[in-house]
Amino acid sequence: MNEKSDQNAAPSDKTPGWADLWQSFSDSSKQIAEAWSSSMAPFMLARLLEHPQGFAAGNEMSEAIEKMAQGPRLADVWDIDRKMALVFGAWMDMRQKLASYNAVTAAPWTEAAKRFMEAMSAVTDNGNKPPPDWREAFAKWSEISNEELIRNQRSDGFLRAQKELLQSGLKLRGRQDDVGEAAAAMFGIPGRKDFDEVTRQLTELRREVRALSHQVNAQQRAARSTRPRAGDPVASSENQPNTQ
Amino acid sequence: MTEDDRAARFFRDMVANTEKMVKATQLFGQTRDEDVAIGTTPKHLVMRRDKVELFHYEPMAEATARTPVLLAYGLIGRYTMADLQPDRSLVRNLLSKGLDLWLIDWGQPGRTERWLTIDDYVDDYIDAAVDRIAQETGHDRVTLLGICEGGVFTTCYAALHPEKVKNLVITITPIDFHADVKDKAAHHGFLNIWTRSLDPEDIDNLVDTYGVVPGEFMSSVFSMMTPMRSLTKYNVDLIDVVDDEAKFMNFLRMEKWLADRPHHPGEAAKQWLKELYQENRLANGNFVLSGRTVDLKSITAPVLNVFALDDHIIPPDCSRALGAKIGSRDYTEIPLPGGHVGLFVSSKSQGKLSQSITDWLVARDANPVGET
Q: Which residue from A minimizes the CA distance to B239?
């Protein structure tokens, strides 16, 4: 009895030790996560103050965040923070790509304005004749601008800027989706990936069923053609009215 | 003209334009979306398969051509472009000329349709529609009338199932997706250039992210192709139409069609943009659907190829390429003046397109007198 009691007592004596250790691990994990999270805010604020015009000036910050967020993963901490940081990094990258795109798309307007002024000078004979009415002037402006904008669209610079903007936009959207997926998983709700997987299975299943249906119909047709009998029913799913 | 005269003219114009913009605002306030009707030609539902529907149009005249005609639009935009309004409707014009017209409507694909491929559209949906029309009418073959991407689908179908196709009519359809380089017009073929500028992975990422190519995304690409038109349609264009109710309603119908741009199913979009626009597989003879190579030489039915000479989306040379690649000896090209959409909806082109198609069909497939 005593021996048994001692055996029972032994683990209970150790329990506080494990609990303390767990508590200690938990506290230190929380501290690490908090330290990491809180370190981001002053860092971002500092960079914002360095670049009051926003983040469009360069992508050093998004690169820094990317580097931090792409670091080694820990199993139980940081994951949502890491995902949020990646979203923020992608957002800044997209802002920078948008600024580059805007710069490229703004360029042809200068050339269009120059050409339009020259055209108007010619029409008015350098101010010696009256200017055309607004419709005529607008038609000229529209024609010239259209030419310049289309010329710009076909340039390598425009195509590259647009491609980079698309890539950065998709990266941002993908990372936002990752946060959404993590939040859905937290609440036990199926996410976008689950939906895609279900629809993939449904589409493939439908194809298999229809292929089998075709096969059966073909076999039935072949059987009818080899053994024609008066009054055979026309048995086929293809003959069903209205819906299939 | 003195400075005072110029200033007076400037203010007069400004007041007149402001008044027109106020009037436009009032008209917008008075008009409800349901007042702007498109795709109104009477038809009835014959078959539904997933979101795809097969309709049969009510006849409007005595039959002139024998074989039923199946109209297939693409997945970029909706068939309503061919039936925008009663006086600008390819559908109504063909019916009034005695064709037996059927329509395959792809509906509004969403993320649920992400995994559908062009294989599904050609070998399942079109095939099921053709079989159903054959069953309903007693014809063992149908005439296919494809528009734009729908023209590619019907061309592929005619190559893979020649025994079921009586005639093939395609309009504004790309076949050689790299032939835009031959076109010297600066405003032609931006879509080809833009698509080739992307990496294949960009297209994969787009589809994997959204599950589709969003309709709004395609709209923005199309808007870029006519930059000044896109910038002025809600101001200068509106000033031009606001005093004429019929023109104002035409403007709203076109806007309704543009706004009704469905999402393009994801996997089909990957094939469309990568295998066709980037790799040009259809023209190169290595486009594979349902495990079979689409060999254009297998097309033996008579073919009518109609394209628009000022088509900025599908440059004429991209369409013309079909003639040299098919097996049929009965091939006709009809280049018509106008643009990609204008061919179907402009007042100038009304009647030309439908008359060309009907004349060509009746010459090959006339309905015997008295037979319906």
A: A135
